[in-house]
């Protein structure tokens, strides 16, 4: 007997044999039974889901000797002729090659003649979306009011290309893609019938590659049978389909788990060496990750995997080693690579880079936990020299610096050279000390330098009322007060806190607070009435002095000249250098701290 490909041999000959389109079968069934058959139908759906087959079945149902009946006999002459495609009254026209207006005119002319033997004249136009615009227009009038006993059935894989005017004249049916299980069942039936020995897992692979199209899956099965004969071995399926098997995928994911970059690259090169398509491999990996995710998060993964239970144990074992967000990250890396590989002339390199990125994936951490961790690190790092914040230009160590040696504090703190205080009058000394603490390089109190610890010793020389005032001001240290002001301002008006992070406190005493901004934009934001009011409110709240004058100015404080200071310029030079050096050292330390907390690698 002459060989017929599976797709033709197993083409459904009855509505009951049609797989996966129950909604359409039922509608047509009822229409035929109730004698309410329309004169134009449009069947749309992806390739190989049964549009043309259904059109032929409908033609048979209408013209069967026993009919019109929803269950044509398939034995009478009409049924046989239609099945073999030789009926003169059922014309199957290929829209792709008969797409001109001339062909449509011929068809319309023919339509006027009555049927030769059948009950209905049926015109099946396949791939109807290929008709030209003029051809569609030529068809409109006939389609709206065809002669009696004429039925048009259009089939298309691209519904969006059909003009609205045609759609409105037809009954439209959308065919669903077939599920994996439906395809597997059908392939299994074919294999059992033909005595083909095939592993269920291989059937699954073939069905999967059909991508919802029964015809594609059946063609692939034919191809595999032609390659192997009656007994099909797993390697042959992979070779014919050009895919990488589940075992290889599982091994690959194992290597990702072990962060074995060399092993992964080796596996990629093997895939290429075996002539497999890297795009398919990437796609299969993405699907494998999806399965891992299902197993990880879904209780009933077996049913969601739609029959792919052969590797369930492996999947479960591997899924236990990944966090869901890791799988998400890997999925994103591979999805991006898959898209880019299609456009790239170097798909292998792209894929290799993506694979290497997989080894860097780490689980995300809760932001709250990270903040807690950073907070817990803050203490030791400030006293230990590696402070994460000095770049902002303030002097946080002051409040936590031990009061003991005056020499150690200035080094970590600010570039002001301590000048001998005894020559300065007591009140002057007091004022300057407060300002020094605020900014270190304050231009306002040029005369003396001082440190937090020295405040105490100085205060011994300060008159009693001055000391009292300082206590009333509640300014144990200006930087501390400034920090409180910022957080209070942030609490009153959230963005304000951020704006203030960008400026520097240059002076803070009982009468005035002076802020220096690096750019006019930020200053403008703080100057806005509602922000300025919020700032005033925060200052009043922290210092208890609502009348305190607030001055905003542009420029950095480090360049400000000391007007009447006796301090010589020489000591400032080494200080400046020192601070620059310290700045870069701190950057490294910040990076190191960040790596400790977040993990990861430095890319450049
Ligand atoms: Zn029949």
Short structural summary:
The protein is α/β, with parallel strands linked by helices and 604 residues long. It contains 29 helices and 8 strands.
| CATH class identity of the largest domain | Alpha Beta
Structural class: alpha/beta
| Number of helices, where a helix is a run of at least 4 consecutive DSSP H or I residues | 29
| Low-pLDDT segments | 381-476, 557-583
Determine the CATH topology of the largest domain. GMP Synthetase, Chain A, domain 3
How many domains is the backbone divided into?
Answer: 4
If you average the pLDDT, what whole number results? Answer: 77
Reported CATH architecture of the largest domain: 2-Layer Sandwich
Radius of gyration: 41 Å
Number of strands: 8
List the ligand species. zinc ion
CATH superfamily of the largest domain, please? DnaA, N-terminal domain
- Quaternary structure type: single chain
- Strand ordering within the main sheet: 2-3-4-1-5
Distance between the termini: 69 Å
Q: Characterize the overall form.
A: elongated
Q: What summary fits the major beta sheet?
A: 5 strands, parallel
């Amino acid at each position: 007997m002459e060989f017929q490909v599976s797709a033709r041999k197993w083409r459904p000959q009855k509505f009951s044999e049609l797989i996966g389109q129950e909604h359409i079968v039922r509608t047509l069934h009822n229409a035929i039974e109730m004698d309410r058959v329309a004169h134009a139908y449009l069947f749309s759906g992806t390739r190989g889901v049964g549009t043309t087959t259904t059109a032929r079945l409908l033609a048979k149902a209408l013209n069967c000797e026993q009919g019109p009946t929803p269950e044509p006999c398939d034995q009478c002459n009409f049924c046989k002729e239609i099945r073999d495609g030789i009926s003169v009254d059922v014309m199957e026209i290929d829209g792709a090659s008969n797409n001109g207006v001339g062909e449509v005119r011929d068809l319309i002319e023919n339509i006027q003649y009555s049927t030769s033997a059948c009950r209905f004249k049926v015109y099946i136009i396949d791939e109807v979306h290929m008709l030209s615009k003029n051809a569609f227009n030529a068809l409109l009038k006939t389609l709206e009011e065809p002669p009696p006993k004429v039925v048009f059935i259009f089939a298309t894989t691209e519904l969006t290309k059909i003009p609205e005017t045609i759609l409105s004249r037809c009954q439209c049916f959308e065919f669903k893609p077939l599920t994996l299980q439906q395809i597997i069942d059908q392939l299994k039936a074919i294999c059992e019938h033909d005595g083909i020995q095939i592993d269920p897992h291989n059937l699954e692979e073939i069905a999967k590659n059909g991508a919802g199209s029964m015809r594609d899956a059946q063609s692939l099965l034919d191809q595999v049978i032609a390659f192997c004969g009656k007994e099909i071995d797993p390697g042959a399926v992979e070779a014919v389909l050009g895919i990488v098997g589940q075992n290889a995928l599982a091994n690959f994911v194992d290597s990702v788990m072990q962060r074995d970059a060399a092993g992964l690259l080796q596996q990629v090169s093997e895939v290429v060496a075996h002539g497999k398509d890297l795009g398919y491999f990437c796609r299969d990996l993405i699907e494998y990750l999806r399965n891992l995710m299902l197993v990880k998060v879904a209780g009933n993964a077996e049913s969601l995997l739609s029959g792919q239970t052969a590797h369930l144990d492996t999947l479960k074992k591997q899924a236990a080693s990944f966090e869901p967000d890791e799988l998400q990250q890997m999925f994103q890396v591979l999805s991006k690579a898959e898209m880019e590989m299609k456009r790239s002339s170097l798909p292998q390199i792209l894929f290799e880079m993506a694979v290497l990125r997989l080894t860097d994936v780490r689980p995300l951490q809760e932001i709250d936990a990270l903040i807690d961790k950073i907070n817990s690190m803050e203490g030791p790092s400030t006293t230990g020299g590696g402070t994460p914040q000095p770049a902002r230009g303030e002097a946080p160590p002051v409040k936590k610096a031990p009061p003991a040696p005056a020499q150690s504090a200035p080094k970590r703190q600010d570039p002001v050279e301590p000048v001998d205080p005894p020559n300065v009058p007591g009140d002057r000394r007091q004022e300057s000390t407060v300002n020094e603490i605020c900014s270190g390089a304050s231009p306002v109190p040029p005369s003396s330098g001082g440190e937090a610890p020295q405040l105490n010793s100085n205060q011994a020389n300060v008159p009693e009322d001055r000391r009292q005032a300082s206590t009333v001001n509640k300014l144990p240290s200006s930087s501390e007060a400034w920090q409180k002001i910022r957080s209070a301002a942030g609490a009153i008006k959230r963005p304000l806190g951020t704006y203030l992070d960008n400026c520097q406190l240059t002076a803070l005493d009982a009468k005035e607070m002076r802020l220096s901004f690096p750019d006019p934009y930020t200053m403008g934001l703080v100057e806005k009435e509602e922000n300025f009011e919020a700032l005033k409110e925060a200052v009043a709240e922290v210092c208890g002095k609502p009348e305190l004058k607030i001055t905003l100015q542009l420029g950095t404080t480090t360049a400000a000249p000391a007007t009447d200071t006796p301090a010589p310029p020489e000591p400032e030079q080494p200080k400046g250098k020192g601070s620059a050096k310290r700045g870069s050292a701190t950057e490294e330390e910040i990076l190191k701290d960040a790596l400790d907390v977040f993990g990861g690698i430095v890319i450049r």
